[in-house]
Amino acid sequence: MDKKIIVRMAPSPTGNLHIGTARTTLFNYLFAKKYGGKFILRIEDTDKERSTAEFEKNILDGLEWLGLKYDEFFKQSERTEIYRKYLKKMIDDGFAYISQETPTEEGQRNEVVRFKNPNKKIVFDDLIRGQVEFDTTELKDFVIAKSLEEPLYHLAVVIDDFEMGITHIIRGEDHISNTPRQILIQEAIGATRPIYAHLPLILDNDRKKLSKRNHGEAVWIDFYKKQGYLPEALLNFYALLGWNPGTEQEIFSLVELEKTFDIEKVQKSGAIFDEKKLRWINKEHLRLYEENSKKEIEKRIKNKFANTDINSKIVNLIFERIEVYSDVDKLIEVGELDYYFNEPELDSEKIAWKDSNSIEAKKHLTKILDVLDDNEAIMSYAELVGKGNVLWPLRYALSGKDKSPDPFTLLEILGKEKSTERVNKAIGLLK
Question: CATH 3.40.50.620 in the chain, residues?
């Protein structure tokens, strides 16, 4: 910590922005901000067959949407000459050699560049996992380049980290096995060893690693963006995947995370992706968001009703019932909001409450018909003869649903005229 902290995130553009990539980017970003350091974004596109411009754009757009801004940007595909210089020197100094290969399958090279393994033990300190030891003998002489112009991952990443002055490498624990190879290359080129911190994997409720194969598009940031999650909520949730502030606080802004984050409080065990927790956090951020951006929230909810005019009272009711914007679509799909726009279809057998009967229900509805705009009068009568006996028939008459908001909410939104019509309709169905 006696020099300027420099960290990097180095995604490969071989797929869309992954939840794990976003979480690791966030931890690097927060670590840099905490200590006034520099955060570098580096696109590792040496895999020409699998890297695409579309995936690169998806990653960049996703990080921008999340609000994770980088200080410098690099692309490995633009640094080929730098790798060539180092590779040639490694061969000249005896740390690497051109290896004649016997292809065992179609497409394999006759010639590659291999690192000359000194076959020794490597020990490094990890900020999260403590001391880690590897015996590199089992790695043998591993391939570091297809040719002088085609470096592979391990070589390019070490050269870039050295050239860019990376002080700390914060990445997922699935990279631990890469570390001994990279330390050997660091020693060969005379690079300073960075400090490592390997983050716990993100797991589902069954403690399986989140993957496209097992979880589909739910591993991509786009999936949550399309559902209407707030980027602030996602960042808050990702920060808690493997990190605990040591306090009761669970809702954080990005600025608060920058001040609070401590890499030494990152846990070793896997972090469980709990969608219920994510939805709760999103709701809390929606509430915070409501205070400053009520018009934006109203606009986003109203946009779900293309050709229907809805008032602010309905918007407020819908807002209270959702945790994420896509919940509005679900409410519409199952008809939970139909009673605001369409006359309800009533089943006369459902109007009366439980052990009550149609005669009693008709009497109660008739009694409160003249006081539909007086909530206190309705409640006083309901308390006198039994809340269920009064409030159930009233709510069902107004909505036609077994489940709906309370009758007072419905009365307020529907207004006295429409409410009176619906109650009279229910009375007419009762014998």
Answer: 1-75+200-290
**Backbone phi and psi for residue 75, each to the nearest 5 degrees, phi listed first:** -130, 130
Helical (H) or strand (E) element with 134: strand 130-135
> 31 near 69, Cβ under 8 Å?
no
The predicted-structure confidence for 10-43, as pLDDT tens digits, reads as follows 999 999 999 999 999 999 999 999 999 999 999 9
Q: Is 212 a catalytic residue?
A: yes
Q: How many residues does the chain have?
A: 431
CB 142 within 8 A of CB 158: no
CATH 1.10.10.350 domain extents, the chain: 339-429
Q: Could you tell me which residues come within 8 angstroms of residue 15 by beta carbon, excluding any fewer than 6 positions away? A: 55, 212
Closest CA to 26 of 225, 241, 227: 241
pLDDT tens readout for residues 84-109: 999 999 999 999 999 999 888 887 88
Q: Was domain 339-429 assigned CATH 1.10.10.350?
A: yes
The upper half-sphere exposure of residue 16, i.e. CA atoms within 13 Å in the direction of its Cβ, equals: 14
Catalytic pick among 120, 212, 226, 259: 212
CATH topology of domain 1-75+200-290: Rossmann fold (3.40.50)
Position of tokens 């490995």?
A: 76
